[in-house]
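Translate structure to sequence.
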């Protein structure tokens, strides 16, 4: 029996039949295959992006570990007993400061300079602390609480230097503070990624509420607004930055929750509809599939 739709009212009702093209089972077969092929493409491309993102994140973790070792070596030097003794002498007698500089230069080839501060320097006016005054005050306050401040990058004139600051003597009642400045190569030497796995990797400094400062990068981002993962380097304000793919999408294609499942269901329905409707393609009716018949 052929089904039809009727439209109109009263005795003038007219019969509307579906367009002939919709009665062609090949349409449903092509639709089902197209949807399933699209699903396969999205899933496989998404899996490839996820694998690349995983490898990129692992590379970022390795870079952060290498930099952590460099940071720890720098901080162990700052907390060395000999450094503390020489710094205490220099606070009491500025003429002995050269001995401290000489010792640090022997421990660190990238050594550039030192700065000594009194125990109450962080309470004084910022303009009395010289260059990078607010940053220096913040580092002193951190060292006042934790004994040592995170390693970070500072600009000194035309130079870019790595700065470390430590409390001298007892943390609760320090005799003063010591800042050691070194060339940025001390950290860049442990961040040399010639082949970023995801096409991009960067080293940046977290500046809190201010914009992060990029120190070095390799490669280029594939997209302007690409999702980025940031891996902190312990003991410093440094972070490793690597691109990540959106797990909710396949290769950057945005997919709402349940999108993949709905596409698969519609594709299977369209394909099965076409096979049941095509001439010569009907399968023998089985009681356990369609119910018993009499």
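Result:
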């Amino acid at each position: 029996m052929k089904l039809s739709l009727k439209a109109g009212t009263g005795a003038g009702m007219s019969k509307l039949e579906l367009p002939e093209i919709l009665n062609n089972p090949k349409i449903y077969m092509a639709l089902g295959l197209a949807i399933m092929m699209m699903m396969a493409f999205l899933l496989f491309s998404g899996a490839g992006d996820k694998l690349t993102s995983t490898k990129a994140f692992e590379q970022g973790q390795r870079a952060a570990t290498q930099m952590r070792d460099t940071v720890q070596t720098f901080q162990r030097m700052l907390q060395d007993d000999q450094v503390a003794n020489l710094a205490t002498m220099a606070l009491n007698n500025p003429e002995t400061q050269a001995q401290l500089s000489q010792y640090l230069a022997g421990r660190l080839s990238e050594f550039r300079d030192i700065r000594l501060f009194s125990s109450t320097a962080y309470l004084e006016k910022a303009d009395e602390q010289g260059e990078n005054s607010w940053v220096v005050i913040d580092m002193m306050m951190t060292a006042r609480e934790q004994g040592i401040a995170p390693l970070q990058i500072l600009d000194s004139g035309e130079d870019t230097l790595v700065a470390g600051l430590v409390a001298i003597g007892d943390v609760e009642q320090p005799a003063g503070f010591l800042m050691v400045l070194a060339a940025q190569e001390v950290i860049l030497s442990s961040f040399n990624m010639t082949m970023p796995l995801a096409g991009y990797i960067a080293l940046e400094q977290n500046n809190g509420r201010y914009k992060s400062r990029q120190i070095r990068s390799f490669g280029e981002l594939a997209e302007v607004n690409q999702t980025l993962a940031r891996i902190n380097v312990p003991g410093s304000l440094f972070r490793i930055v690597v691109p990540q793919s959106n797990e909710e999408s396949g290769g950057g294609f945005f997919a709402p929750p349940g999108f993949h499942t709905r596409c698969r269901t519609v594709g299977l329905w369209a394909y099965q509809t076409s096979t049941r409707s095509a001439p010569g393609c009907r399968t023998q009716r089985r009681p356990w599939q369609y119910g018993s018949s009499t």
